[in-house]
TrEMBL record:
Organism placement in taxonomy: Bacteria, Bacillati, Bacillota, Bacilli, Lactobacillales
Alphabetically ordered keywords of this record: Oxidoreductase
Name of a matching Pfam family: adh_short
Family: Belongs to the short-chain dehydrogenases/reductases (SDR) family.
InterPro entries: NAD(P)-bd_dom_sf, Sc_DH/Rdtase_CS, SDR_fam
Gene3D superfamilies: NAD(P)-binding Rossmann-like Domain
Name of the protein in its database record: SDR family oxidoreductase
Length: 267
């Protein structure tokens, strides 16, 4: 797909990976709308990058998604590219007695439900375009779970399966929407991966946002259904060859980072 002269919406577009894609795509000559739930962050991003446009919405809330859809239908009827980037990542010790059951669901609500809500609501708008694209950002952790972030890992595996099913439904309905799954490795400089700073994982399994965006743009231009960025390529092969060994080693590394962060293990 040609990545110029499009109208693009990016959820989670006020920081991290979402903002990095927003700025690159803006520079490439597109109209870019970022979506976030924090108005203060939106105002700051717009002041720093006046070429961007923005809509405030919490994609974990169906009422907000309905309002977002109505505004896009009205103000951006030529919307033809969506990047679902919104996500939160939390670390849990599932043996911690202080963690309530209700504490465990926020990642599901935002990471997985949010993508489902946004996609279902905007498929009719995308279907009306001559050509459209929807990019769901999952993760390396859809291939192998991070032991310190079990719920986040589960949501990314869910995104992978949902995206596969969505792609087949798009084909069955004969609409010209390219369905893309982007699988980042650990990405340095984002809030989600700070717990891995200066660890084995940071040294060997990470990419910068620039590297990720480069890989993503290249894959999107080629309409690749699945973009394995950086270390994800290596991990996919490894999980085919020695899945249990990789899962164990990866789990040890992520839990070690967790314990060090919480000063339960001496560095």
């Amino acid at each position: 797909m040609k990545l110029t002269n499009n109208t693009i919406m990016i959820t989670g577009g006020t920081s991290g990976i979402g903002l990095a894609f927003a700025l690159r795509l803006l520079d490439m000559g597109n109209r870019v709308i970022v979506v976030g739930r924090n108005q203060a962050k939106i105002d700051n991003v717009l002041s720093l990058h006046p070429g961007l446009e923005a809509i405030r919405a919490d994609i974990s809330q169906t009422a907000d998604v309905t309002a977002l859809t109505n505004q896009l239908e009205r103000d951006y009827p030529d919307l033809n590219l969506i990047i679902n980037s919104a996500g939160i990542m939390r670390q849990y010790d599932l043996f911690d007695p202080e963690i309530a059951l209700t504490d465990l669901t926020s990642e599901v609500t935002t990471n997985l439900n949010g993508i489902i809500y946004v996609t279902k609501s905007l498929l009719p708008l995308l279907s009306r375009q001559p050509e459209a694209m929807l990019v769901n950002i999952s993760s390396l952790l859809s291939l192998v779970s991070a032991a310190d972030s079990p719920i986040y890992s589960a949501t990314k595996a869910g995104i992978h399966m949902y995206t596969d099913a969505l792609r087949e439904q798009v084909k069955a309905n004969h609409v010209n929407i390219h369905i893309v799954e982007l699988l980042p490795p650990l990405v340095t400089g984002t809030n989600l991966t700070q717990q891995y700073d200066k660890t084995f994982l940071d040294k060997f399994a990470s990419s910068t946002t620039t590297q990720l965006v480069n890989a993503g743009i290249k894959g999107m231009q080629k309409n690749k259904p699945q973009i394995d960025a950086g270390f994800t390529k290596f991990m996919r092969v490894s999980m085919h060859l020695v899945p249990r060994q990789v899962t164990h080693i990866w789990g040890q590394q992520t839990m070690t980072a967790f314990l060090k962060k919480h000063k339960l293990l001496h560095a």
